[in-house]
Request: fold
Amino acid sequence: MTEVVILCAFAFLAGLVDAVAGGGGLIQVPALFAVFPSLPPSIVLGTNKFAAITGTTMATLRYNWSVPIYWRAVLPAAGVAGIGALAGAKTVTLIDPAILRPFLLVLLSTIAVYTLMHPKLGENPDARSPLVQGGVSFYALTAVFGFYDGFFGPGAGILMMFALVRLFGYEFLSAAATTKVLNLASNFGALALFLMTGNVLYAVALPMAALNIAGGLLGAHFAIRKGSRFIRAVFLIVVAALIIKILVDLLKYS
Reply:
């Protein structure tokens, strides 16, 4: 019982942070591994996805009430992300996702430096209006995002949000809203496989889901009220935390 209470607290925090800048898996997945170290990784990841998808759903709805989401481009992209996540979750059974750690460390470090060097990045949309997105490059990006989210997970929302801001001209608030829709689809794609293979611990996942919903709603509310500058600050904090975690993991397993 104590373990579930602890995990629910982490689930609330994960939902809150993930709704603002992504990176909820950075909080929730290590907590699950710490509390249940003997569980197979597939069950830990499946339980995490079950809890995470609920908070992501509520955060998406909250964003949709207040932030324009360009559904004509985003809905097809969400389908692509879901299929990519399903493929990524299947690949987990064949390849150890830990091989991505060094690459992700370099990528996140580059993102952090670039964002710090461009203080106005993502504060306002640029001339590349999100309304016209939906081309091959946009869908290719969402396919890669979905695959990565299903295969490895941590940092997926961060990478997608940065790509939307840097490559497609979004400001951080619209990027956060769009990333939630894509993240919802990728979570669903990965979760479908975990459900079909019995890799969800429902006694833990259900109460965690309830707290993840509360955190997701609160996080989206803060993001909408505070705007892109606040999201950018949280984004950088989460990126820094993820870099530190990956460094620790690399040192631990080297």
Notes: Residues 2-253 form one domain.
